[in-house]
Amino acid sequence: MIRQAWIGMFLIVCALLAGCTPAGGTRPVQHVAADPKAAELNMRLGINYLQRGDYAIALEKLEKALTQNPNLPSAHNTIAILYQRLNEMDKAEHHFEQAVNRQPDYSAAHNNYGVFLCQKKRYAEAEQHFLEAIKNPLYESPAQAYENAGLCVNRIPDQTLAETYFRKALQLAPQSSKSLIQMAKLRLLDIDYLDARSYLERYKQVAAWTPQALYTAIQIEYHLNDKNAVSSYALLLRGRFPDSDEALKVKAGEYK
Fold it and tell me: Is the pTM of this model over 0.70?
């Protein structure tokens, strides 16, 4: 505590959260509170409590961190995620904005903010934040940002652009199950059934079945006229997910 003033003038902290990478950006010159080390400690405690689902204590720790250092981007990013889970959307957006404004190259915050905006159907804004995340060459999860961009623009729907993003995600992370199943669905919509099957086969190698994936498999094999495969996938769907909407659709023949 003796050297707090010196530390507050010269120490810049960027605590990592889900791929935060500090290099490459220019931070605004702002006053830094007197206890950045304590702020980082409380921010990390806040992350731990957030991950455990103890939101009340997480909020207490994160608010304390921001009192100790209002300029800590990772604390703004983390408390934004917490407010999002608490359905306090105005507060969540405020802190996402604070995170990316205080550290423009904070890729994890851009990615998280993009997910938030996409959920609010602000697709164009969300896409821009995903692209901002990818700009940082030191970002450790660019495939995730590409994938999120694909999922988001696919809601517009802009299937051509979505496919572009999913392909880029798979170039970086060939075993990304979400991108693989989404590509299978897009190829199915484009009536390229063999290509759709190839993506499905890749998906099967890296992920467990979900009702949605099995339903897509049934649709693909139906259009390829492989009755045995249709029956096999339908049996698997009924056996593993008998109460799913997809099982009910298949029972009613709603996959043709």
Answer: yes
